[in-house]
Structure formats: structure tokens, C-alpha cells
Design brief:
With 322 residues, this protein is an alpha/beta fold. Among the domains are: 8-89, Arc Repressor Mutant, subunit A (Orthogonal Bundle), CATH 1.10.10.10; 162-265 and 300-315, Periplasmic binding protein-like II (D-Maltodextrin-Binding Protein, domain 2), CATH 3.40.190.10. The protein has helices at residues 8-20, 23-30, 34-48, 64-89, 102-109, 113-119, 171-176, 203-209, 225-233, 243-252, 281-296, 312-315, and strands at residues 53-55, 60-62, 95-100, 124-129, 143-148, 155-168, 188-191, 221-222, 238-242, 261-274, 305-308. α1 (8-20) packs across α2 (23-30) and α1 (8-20) packs across α4 (64-89). The chain is elongated. The protein starts with 7 loop residues before the first helix and ends in a 7-residue tail after the last helix.
């Protein structure tokens, strides 16, 4: 038996028939007649030397040989399709597909996009705001902005600034709660989008960083950071704001931080693309623009006491058990 591969058209006919379990539906998909598709599959079976389908009265079933061949054929055509789409995208120098979380898109990207569009009118940005990790090939993604620890194996990844959290609120609320001690009486907002961080960067951890033993439990709870920030902007309470989500509001004065103690996490936003794609002009332009925008709000860090969350136990050792 020869190991020579059969014609691609015959394998394509088999793949379609195996997915649909119908010669008629496979023929419709490939835009050929059922007789032509049947001929291709028959030729494939002759090439292999064994049937791939059991022909029943009104249906078909895969034989053992067909069940063995089907997964590899499907994967092969999917790989070809992905490679073809990736190669075609190399010719597209104007469209940039970016995926980021909904909160980062709403609070960091969206307010700044006018400046990017003004600087790069030739680039057509398309955003997919999702917490789902999209596939670069299947979903035709060029750049992903992701938050966490990584690793980003097999990709080009550029860590951006470390993130921190600290209490932020409207100027009116800040006049009422100007100190760390007074925050124990303030209406607190809870952002659960970072509950996955280890060590935790939550209200009890921040109060420890400020030298106060306090575990708040009451107040509105939010699953997404942008919703928690919006609540703080409305004056509903004090949120433990993440740098990326509140830096523009702090820079613009819509939110203030009367207690300048920030709790830093090792988790970061990362700029991710395929290896080798980082030098493509539209991707490099987007990356450089993001770095420039980050630098514009660097003054927000001035005067902050930034405490790595990993150092909390060194500053404030846990109390011994009673």
C-alpha cells in the first residue's frame, strides 16, 4: 500500500461528508452534485483500498477506517484554513483587530481612541471586548490586552506597568473621609473582578497596608471593575480602584485619593501578539501609542506610598493565634 496522499479534492469531499453524515449536505456545502461527491469518495476508497462509509438506505455511517481518518482530516483542513487566513491578513495593513476585557476597553481604551484615530487615520481599529481568551487564528485577532500573571507561551508578550489598587472617591466624599481611619466609616464598594489575585488585593489587605485592622463586609458588590468605578464616580461610595481603571479619572480630577497608599500586585496587563508580528507597522503603532498614553498619566504615581502585596506580612506580621 502506497503512502502517497490522495488528491486534496477527494479528502475535502470525505471531510464534508464525515461532518454532515450526509452526501447530499456535503455536496451542498462544496457546491457540487451528489454524484460528483460520491465519485470523489469512491476514488478515495479505491486509493485507500477499503470503504470509508457504510451506505445505508437513507443515511451513511463511517466505517472503522472512516472513523480513524475523520479527525485528522478535519484538523488538517482547519490548519490549512487558519494558515490561509493568517497569510491573507499579512496583506491587510489597515485593519487592526484588538481584544481586551470589557472593563479595560471601557475605562482605558475607549476614552483615548480619538487621539489614536487622529494620529493614525489609516488604521481601522476593531475591538472585541471579552473576558474569553480568543484564539488568534480562529478569531482573527492581531493584538490581545490581557491582565494576570501569564505566561503567554508561544506569543510575543510585553508586560506593561504593574497594577495597584487604592481607595478613590469623588472630591465631595473625600472631604468627608480624608483619612484611612475615617474610611472604616465610609460607604465602601467591592470589586470582585480581581478576586483571583494571590495574595489578595482587597479591602482587608489594603487596610493592613494602611496599618489598620479592619475587615469590611457591607456595601455594594460588583463583578466588573468598570461598574464599580462608575458607582464611585456617581458618589455612591469609595472603591478600591485599580490603576488602569481609574488613572484617567484621577488625572482629570473626577476621582481623588486622599489616602495615598497603594497596594501593588505582580499581575500586569500585557500586550500580546504573534511572534514576529510585533514589528508590523500597525501593531507597532498601536503598542507605541499605548506606551505614550501610559506615560501621560505618570504623575498620578507621584507622592504615592506603593506597597507590594507580597510584603504585607513583613510590614504587618499576622497576629499569633489565641
Amino acid at each position: 500500500m502506497s503512502d502517497r496522499l490522495p488528491p486534496l479534492t477527494a479528502l475535502r469531499a470525505f471531510d464534508a461528508a464525515a461532518r454532515h453524515m450526509s452526501f447530499a449536505k456535503a455536496a451542498d456545502e462544496l457546491n457540487v452534485t451528489p454524484a460528483a461527491l460520491s465519485f470523489q469518495i469512491k476514488a478515495l476508497e479505491e486509493h485507500l483500498g477499503t470503504p470509508l462509509f457504510h451506505r445505508l438506505n437513507r443515511a451513511v455511517e463511517l466505517t472503522e477506517a472512516g472513523r480513524t481518518l475523520a479527525p485528522g482530516t478535519a484538523e488538517g483542513f482547519q490548519a490549512l484554513s487558519n494558515a490561509w487566513r493568517s497569510t491573507r491578513r499579512l496583506q491587510d495593513t489597515t485593519t487592526l483587530n484588538v481584544t481586551a476585557g470589557p472593563a479595560f476597553t471601557a475605562k482605558w481604551l475607549a476614552p483615548r481612541l480619538y487621539d489614536f484615530a487622529r494620529l493614525h487615520p489609516q488604521i481601522d481599529l476593531r475591538f472585541s471586548a471579552s473576558l474569553r481568551l480568543l484564539d488568534f487564528d480562529r478569531d482573527e485577532i492581531d493584538v490581545a490586552i490581557r491582565f494576570g500573571y501569564g505566561p503567554d507561551e508561544g506569543m510575543w508578550s510585553m508586560p506593561m506597568q504593574k497594577d495597584w489598587v487604592m481607595p478613590v472617591m469623588t472630591p465631595d466624599l473625600a472631604a468627608q473621609y480624608p483619612t484611612a481611619e475615617s474610611l472604616t466609616e465610609a460607604p465602601l464598594l467591592f470589586d470582585h473582578s480581581i478576586d483571583f489575585l494571590r495574595p489578595r488585593c482587597d479591602w482587608p489587605a489594603w487596610f493592613r497596608a494602611a496599618g489598620i485592622s479592619f475587615t469590611p463586609t457591607h456595601g455594594p458588590h460588583f463583578s466588573q471593575a468598570d461598574h464599580a468605578v462608575d458607582a464611585a464616580l456617581s458618589g455612591a461610595g469609595v472603591v478600591l480602584g485599580r490603576r488602569a481603571m481609574v488613572v484617567k479619572e484621577l488625572h482629570d480630577g473626577r476621582l481623588v485619593a486622599p489616602v495615598p497608599v497603594a497596594l501593588e500586585t505582580n499581575a500586569r496587563f500585557r500586550f500580546i501578539c504573534r511572534k514576529g508580528a510585533e514589528t508590523q507597522p500597525r501593531i507597532a503603532a498601536f503598542r507605541d501609542w499605548m506606551l505614550t498614553e501610559i506615560d501621560k498619566t505618570a504623575k498620578v504615581h507621584e507622592g504615592l506610598t506603593i506597597i507590594p502585596v507580597e510584603d504585607l506580612d513583613k510590614r504587618w506580621p499576622p497576629a499569633p493565634p489565641p
